[in-house]
Amino acid sequence: MKSSSDNDPFVFRTFSSIEDAKNYQNILAESDIQSNIKDIPPGVDMSFLGSTAGHEYELQIHRADEDRANTLIAKYEEAELIASEGDHYLYQFTNKELIEILQKPDEWSKFDYRLANEILLERGEEVDSDMLTAMKNERLLDLAKPEKSKRYMIVMGYIFSILGGALGIAIGYALSNAKKTLPNGEKVWSYTVQDRKHGRIIFGIGVTVLSILFLLKITDTNPNKLLNHLIY
Q1: Domain limits for position 88
Q2: Separation of first and last alpha carbons in the chain
Q3: Which of 19, 30, 69, 83 maximizes the CB count within 10 A of its CB?
Q4: Can you give the pLDDT at residue 230?
Q5: Are the C-beta atoms of residues 116 and 101 closer than 8 Å to each other?
Q6: How do the pLDDT tens digits run along the chain, 232 residues long?
Q7: What are the entry keywords (predicted)?
Q8: Cα 14 to Cα 54, 111, 142, 224, distances in angstroms
Q9: Looking at residue 205, what is its pLDDT?
Q10: In a domain, 78, yes or no
Q11: Predicted local distance difference test score (pLDDT) of residue 120
């Protein structure tokens, strides 16, 4: 008897291109495994603030189909390895370039990652499991480092928030709350502690100024008269 969790969707694979996602979806569909592709855009905070994080496409399946899906994909990738022997573009890569693929698996497909390892073995460059684990951990540490925000974006955030613009609030919220997901699923802050502090201040100023402007509007109070009254 299947539990309710068996029918819960989960992320089976993540791709950087919609074409690869659809290709795997079609392979699963041929064996009557239902799947769904979820479009994960960089997000307003990432794209607006100049982040290098790109589009991702999650291929989701039911938990109950996981074992069967893994078996199908393993057979497909094995066949692809055999079919592409000597003909795939990765065979033109130098050993150094192939090792870079192993160092950055999040930037390549699982097939490319596996083939790069196979080619290195064929060339006598053995990469053992300990080395792969070390590469993986080093990559995670590198990806977990906070990104440097652009100084002009912080300045613009302060300006827009003081002027009472929603754009300033958006910049402040993005700086203080943006997170990125590592290949292992862990979520970490996108920006440094100092940048997040700026974000909270920008957000607070923006909300305060916007609230004051809103109150002035609904009470039909002239801001200039109010300012003169406060000064004199």
Answers
A1: 84-144
A2: 78
A3: 69
A4: 46
A5: yes
A6: 444 466 778 888 888 788 888 999 999 999 999 999 988 765 544 445 554 445 678 899 998 999 999 899 888 888 877 777 677 888 889 999 999 999 888 888 778 888 898 899 888 988 888 888 888 889 888 888 888 767 888 999 999 999 888 889 999 999 999 888 787 778 889 889 999 999 999 999 999 998 888 887 777 665 565 555 544 4
A7: Membrane, Transmembrane, Transmembrane helix
A8: 12, 13, 20, 55
A9: 94
A10: no
A11: 92
72 is a domain residue:
no
- Number of compact structural domains in the chain: 3
101 and 42 in a single domain? The answer is: no
* Torsion angle of C-alpha atoms 103, 104, 109, 115, degrees rounded to 10: -20
CA distance 197 to 165: 19
Structure tokens at 112: 């490319």
Q: What is the rounded CA–CA span in Å between residue 50 and residue 29?
A: 37
Of 144, 179, 212, the last residue of a domain is 144
Judge whether 74 and 114 are in contact, CB under 8 Å: no
**Do residues 157 and 140 both lie within one domain?**
no
Q: Is residue 206 part of a domain?
A: yes
Between CA 46 and CA 168 the distance in angstroms is: 15
**Count of CB atoms situated within 10 Å of the CB of 108:** 17
